[in-house]
TrEMBL record:
Pfam families per UniProt: BofC_C (PF08955)
Bypass of forespore C C-terminal domain residues: 108-183
Protein name: BofC protein
Domain of life of the source: Bacteria
Amino acid sequence: MEINRRWMVYTSWALALLAGLVAGFFIADASKETGPLRQWFATGSSRSVDVAGKPYKLVLTRTYLCGVRDEEHKPTSLTHLAETMVDYKGWEIVSVDSSKMILMKREQDISPACKANGHFGISADGMLTLFHGLPSEQEVVQTFYRINTAKMEARLSKDDVENLKRGIRVRDLAEYNSILSTYGEFQLNDDY
């Protein structure tokens, strides 16, 4: 019994050491221009050369608090993928296949497009809505909640109500949050 336990401990330590050595080999190889792994890919079987030279696509997906999602496609190669991934520390790997890897990052900000041309307004059906452009253009980015317009008109000045109907420009996250907070008290509850 004692011998089996010792054998398991020694085997576990040996496997951990082996895993550390292999990981160290890969990390050290990634920092070299012509490391052993690169040489193996370059001089290995013809199948290895085909895989190593095959174009590979990195798809960078960003999601923003304002509901916008954008994608950027970056070509790379499998031989340079490890070096490229260093630039995307903190990104979540969504999927990987033989031709592409999809990474995602949740930005804690509003998108550049929302900063450039975002306007809060009320949609035709009474919803607090973020538009790309003025509400009259009806290019919806994100819909939030139905507004109790009677309550809003009773509590806010006529100018504040008209500003919302025309569209309130939002340039940054602070303005975005401020508008949501201001008009949140007029959210129509479905309980009535």
